[in-house]
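ok new one. same drill as before - structure tokens go in, u give me an amino acid for every spot. 463 of them this time. try not to just spam alanines like last time pls lmao
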């Protein structure tokens, strides 16, 4: 069921964005009197389709291959590779008969719509929900530092005062792209001394394999236990993939549950060592993988000790009750104020995509970070949340705008490059060159898609 919810959200989000992207091309073409022959969600590869209908001169339909969509524009060399039509004399309603500037607008139509959609989504989210952030100066206990944070020199209890010399107001900015992408310098207060810690611009290679909790989080005092992982019959069943690939199924181990720890217990010490902060508790447990530990706690005011066998991963399966959450601030914006903020969020997403690709090209970011629809579906999650759904859909809209702008033949950006060449040399690029480029681009895109799917499949097996 969880898989169906993830797939459903992905399908809904991508379908909306693909339809709107192709609508951008469609409306631009019609505005210049160019004939559009097909408008499809998904691809009707080899002529197979789920359904279609014709209205006017346009065939509308849904293909069976959910890897995007397309509009077939008359007189244009595109994914349909309709060479027969291109061999006939050019007609006034065809793409190739129109001035280069009009064809350029048609090619940019989908990208422009994706940008508008992304801005609109973030605009409406900002207007509806405002912004809530953790007040950095209220983090009197500083930060909790994971393994990745420790590697660059941060320590538990550090207080981050500034990023690149600018005062840190919102803690969330310390784990944003301005820090993780750009090799920022953090101004840190430690034991009343000011230090400077530089975040390497390759840090995303490590964070992408872990949660951001392995970098830094606000530091929480140890409170009562809110959750104890218990056996779940559905979760304990051997998965279909385990059976197919012959993997040995190991039932999950829940050490805290087996030892008798219950929600509401307040942990005081591990192996006699007093615990003040939750990160101290996690570290003490992690240092005792596959070992027995003694956890001292209070239950309804009475002391009690549990003998717990720590898992091989270094966990016992509990989550604390964050009753002493850091102070947050909330800001609401009116309709007009929300627009520049939403546009800024959309633009930041576009720039982050560009930076990410740039880092992959220069080798500073592993290509293993490329995700297929499988990875995107996991981000949507197995529960439906409208805020999360629209936030992710806005992010993907801006990512689609950027990806389509890449100068790869077959993508909008490839067509734009050839049109710009035509405008400079004042004559069109030969159709033979365009046909060969389209084939090359198609092969590149297929290879990228196979690589992305392979990435996510290997990640699902922990590789």
């Amino acid at each position: 069921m969880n898989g169906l919810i993830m797939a459903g959200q992905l399908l809904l989000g991508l379908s909306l964005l693909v339809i709107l992207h192709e609508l951008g091309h469609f409306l631009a073409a019609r505005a210049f009197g160019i004939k559009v022959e097909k408008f499809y969600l998904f691809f009707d590869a080899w002529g197979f389709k789920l359904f279609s209908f014709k209205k006017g001169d346009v065939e509308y339909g849904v293909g069976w291959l959910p890897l995007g969509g397309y509009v077939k524009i008359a007189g244009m060399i595109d994914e349909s590779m309709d060479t027969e039509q291109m061999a006939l004399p050019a007609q006034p309603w065809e793409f190739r008969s129109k001035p280069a500037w009009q064809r350029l607008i048609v090619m940019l139509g989908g990208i422009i719509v994706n940008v508008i959609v992304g801005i609109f989504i973030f605009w409406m989210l900002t207007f509806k929900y405002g912004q809530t952030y953790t007040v950095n100066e209220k983090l009197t206990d500083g930060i909790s530092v994971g393994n990745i944070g420790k590697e660059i020199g941060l320590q538990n209890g550090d207080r981050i005062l500034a990023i690149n010399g600018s005062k840190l107001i919102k803690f969330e900015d310390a784990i944003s792209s301005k820090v993780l992408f750009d090799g920022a310098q953090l101004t840190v207060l430690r034991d009343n001394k000011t230090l400077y810690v530089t975040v390497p611009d390759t840090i995303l290679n490590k964070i992408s394999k872990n949660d951001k909790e392995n970098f830094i989080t606000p530091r929480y005092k140890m409170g009562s236990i809110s959750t104890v992982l218990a056996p779940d019959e559905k979760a304990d069943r051997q998965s279909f993939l385990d059976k197919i690939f012959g993997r040995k199924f190991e039932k999950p181990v829940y050490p805290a549950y087996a030892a008798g720890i219950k929600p509401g217990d307040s942990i005081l010490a591990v192996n006699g060592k007093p615990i003040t902060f939750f990160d101290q508790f996690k570290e003490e447990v992690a240092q005792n993988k596959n070992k027995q530990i003694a956890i001292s706690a209070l239950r309804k005011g009475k002391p009690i000790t549990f003998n717990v066998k720590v898992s091989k991963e270094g966990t016992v399966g509990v989550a604390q009750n964050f009753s002493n959450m850091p102070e947050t601030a909330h800001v609401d914006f009116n309709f007009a104020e929300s627009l520049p903020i939403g546009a800024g969020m959309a633009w930041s997403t576009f720039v982050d995509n560009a930076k990410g690709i740039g880092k992959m090209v220069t080798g500073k970011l592993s290509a293993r970070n490329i995700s297929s629809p499988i990875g995107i579906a996991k981000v949507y999650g197995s529960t439906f949340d409208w805020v999360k759904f629209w936030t992710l859909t806005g992010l993907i809209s801006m990512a689609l705008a950027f990806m389509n702008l890449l100068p790869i033949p077959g993508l909008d950006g490839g067509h734009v490059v050839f049109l710009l060449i035509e405008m400079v040399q004042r004559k069109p690029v030969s159709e033979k060159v365009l046909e060969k480029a389209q084939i090359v681009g198609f092969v590149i895109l297929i290879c990228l898609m196979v690589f992305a799917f392979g990435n996510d499949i290997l990640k699902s097996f922990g590789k």
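The first helix runs from residue 2 to 31. and btw The CA atoms of residues 130 and 302 lie 44 Å apart.
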